[in-house]
Automatic annotation (TrEMBL):
InterPro entries in alphabetical order: HotDog_dom_sf, PAAI_dom, Thioestr_dom
The protein's name in its UniProt record: PaaI family thioesterase
GO cellular component, one term: cytosol
Domain named Thioesterase: residues: 51-128
Molecular-function GO term, any one: 1,4-dihydroxy-2-naphthoyl-CoA thioesterase activity
Superkingdom as given in the UniProt entry: Bacteria
Keywords of the record: Hydrolase
Pfam families, per the entry: 4HBT
Length: 139
C-alpha cells in the first residue's frame, strides 16, 4: 500500500490548481491524511445545469479532483504522475445551494494502478453521488 507523500500538502494542491479547472469550479481540499482526502465546493448559479439543478459535471469535477489529488499524494516511490483510465458515478440527489463535500478514500493503492472511491454529500449531509475511478500510475 502506498504511503502518504510528505511533499504533497493542502497548500501545494491549492497552488497546483491555480488557473485550472478545479480552480474555476471552486474546488477546495480541506484535509489530507493516510488513504483519505476531503474537499468541498460552493454551489453557485454558474455551476447549475439549464434545468436549474446542480450539473452532473460539477459533481464529477469535485469527486474526480478529490480522488486525483488523493492519488497524487499516495503515488508509490519512483512514480511521476497518474492518469485516469476509468470513472463511474451514480447520482442519488442534488443540491441547489450551499456547500457540497467529497470524501475520497483509497480502495486499492498498488504500484501500477490505484482505485479511489468518493462520496459526495449535499449541505444537509445526505449522499448525492457515489463515484469510483481507476488511476494508472505513470513512471
Amino acid at each position: 500500500m502506498s504511503k502518504l507523500r510528505t511533499d504533497v500538502t493542502i497548500d501545494s494542491l491549492r497552488e497546483r490548481q491555480r488557473g485550472r479547472l478545479p480552480d474555476l469550479l471552486g474546488f477546495r481540499a480541506t484535509a489530507l491524511e493516510e488513504g483519505v482526502l476531503r474537499a468541498e465546493l460552493d454551489v453557485r448559479d454558474d455551476l447549475l445545469a439549464p434545468n436549474g439543478f446542480l450539473h452532473a459535471a460539477t459533481v464529477i469535477g469535485l469527486a474526480d479532483t478529490a480522488c486525483g489529488y488523493a492519488c497524487l499524494a499516495h503515488l508509490p516511490p519512483g512514480a511521476k504522475s497518474f492518469t485516469t483510465i476509468e470513472l463511474k458515478s451514480n447520482f442519488l440527489g442534488t443540491a441547489l445551494e450551499g456547500t457540497i463535500t467529497a470524501v475520497a478514500t483509497g480502495v486499492h493503492l498498488g504500484r501500477s494502478t490505484q482505485v479511489w472511491d468518493a462520496t459526495v454529500s449535499g449541505p444537509d449531509g445526505k449522499t448525492i453521488a457515489l463515484f469510483r475511478c481507476t488511476q494508472m500510475v505513470l513512471y
